[in-house]
Amino acid sequence: MTEHACVSFMLIKDGEILVEQRSMTKEHDAGLIAIPGGHMEPGENPEQTLIREMAEELEVTPTDYRYLCTLYHLTTETQKIHYYVINSWEGTISAQEADEVYWRELSTANLDIGSDRSAVNEYFRVIKTQPDFFVA
């Protein structure tokens, strides 16, 4: 199975994370509750993908972000997902590709995708060991 590079973005605000209800028409993970993200295009690096995908999916631009980790997600394809934590952004969040986006308590987000749950756990692990890591 071919590996596909992806980027997911964890928008975090006041102890909550923005999640999406994926569209039932999506090729991968249709209908699931997930951290928003998308596939890297040929020639893009992860940060370029982050900025493009946030604009396409949410109509916002990140202004303060940090790389968190890279995890694999096995769906109908093998996805190598680069996770970023977004502490601030410009624009008003608007779901463009998902059925819905909404805020959930970070500690109880109940995400459907295992790698997303692992990324949230990694966020808490890094915050406990390096609390200044996410401070701009």
TrEMBL record:
Gene Ontology molecular function terms on file: 8-oxo-7,8-dihydrodeoxyguanosine triphosphate pyrophosphatase activity; 8-oxo-7,8-dihydroguanosine triphosphate pyrophosphatase activity; 8-oxo-dGDP phosphatase activity; 8-oxo-GDP phosphatase activity; metal ion binding
One Pfam family it belongs to: NUDIX
SUPFAM superfamilies in the record: Nudix (SSF55811)
GO biological process, one term: DNA replication
Cofactor: Mg(2+)
Catalytic activity: 8-oxo-dGTP + H2O = 8-oxo-dGMP + diphosphate + H(+); 8-oxo-GTP + H2O = 8-oxo-GMP + diphosphate + H(+)
Enzyme Commission number: 3.6.1.55
Residue ranges constituting the Nudix hydrolase domain according to the UniProt record: 2-126
Entry keyword set: DNA damage, DNA repair, DNA replication, Hydrolase, Magnesium, Metal-binding, Mutator protein
InterPro entries reported for this sequence: MutT-like (IPR047127), NUDIX_hydrolase-like_dom_sf (IPR015797), NUDIX_hydrolase_dom (IPR000086)
Family the UniProt entry places it in: Belongs to the Nudix hydrolase family.
Record protein name field: 8-oxo-dGTP diphosphatase
